[in-house]
User: What shape does this take?
Amino acid sequence: MSSSEVIEKIKEALGDIIESIEEGKGVVHVFVPVDKIVEAARKLKELGFDHIKDVTAIDYPKENVIKIIYHASSYGNVELSKYIVGLGYSIPRDTERVPSLYSVWTTADFQEREVYEAFGIVFEGHPDLRPLLLSPPVAELKPLRKDFVVKEETIFRK
Amino acid sequence: MPEENGKVYVGNVNVAAKQARKLLLGKLRLGKLVDWGTAFSLWPVHLTTSCCGCEFAAAWSPRFDNEQHGALPWIGSRQTNMILIEGTVSKKMACAVRVVWEQMPQPKFAIAMGACAIDGGIFYNSYNIVRPWEIIPVDIYIPGCPPRPEAVARAIIELQRKIRREGIASKFVEEGWRPDKDYVKPKEDLCAWWRG
Assistant: This one.
């Protein structure tokens, strides 16, 4: 299955939900509106993308946007397993609550907790939303947002 | 038999220990034996805080064989007397390090391994690390990123020399604490996140 066929399949399945779709090397990036994300995820899962490899968020302070991307792939379908679909959406930076995709892909559990602790975004519908790696006082700083300033230290002490 | 007579004989353990110390270290001069024994029975605890743990594992593998120096990693913190901090200590891990350090019996020793354990290394201005010397008193530092297993062996030999030269173990038996090291008290509450 070539990449254009995969794109055609995704376009067919998701229909007019898609905001934008573009192809990278081995990756297909699909962007949808926030309120349609669960529906889009269900349709992708029906297509054969049965797990997610990664949940990531990128902060764009100049455009006042945070992009959240779920990288979905397949174990069951050999043809689809060669591709990764980046299913994403953009939200304004002050958004506090977004829908969780735990109900669709269970593997989103720990990944969403990491996004929660590093960016302070609350995933609604997540069963156990606690900080995963950071301690709660550090997680409150939202350390992976671009406006978090790292305290510069010299390596030599006075 | 005391049980038959309905009596139990109770002695003052502290007084007995003091007299035994006086006898052993004063008249019999067993201090050197204590130091010698401690130097060749260093038991590092299995507490792999970071990636230098791979080198730690290699240092006890057949090729480098640190067991020949009389040191063997052991699992329980109650049965060990040395802590080898491998690399970065994150804020959550600092709690575990301190708890393990408190559980270990005296006299205990600490080696800090790798650039991260000295002053942060590549994470020198990170928001989520602590320096090991802020939470426990460190005896020996090993530089390198990561240090070779030979460097770990060198650190253990240096620690043995230090114990025998300064008589740390016998001084501990004499005094009841380690006079050469200050008690390090962490500035912040390390386990606050855990207690909630």
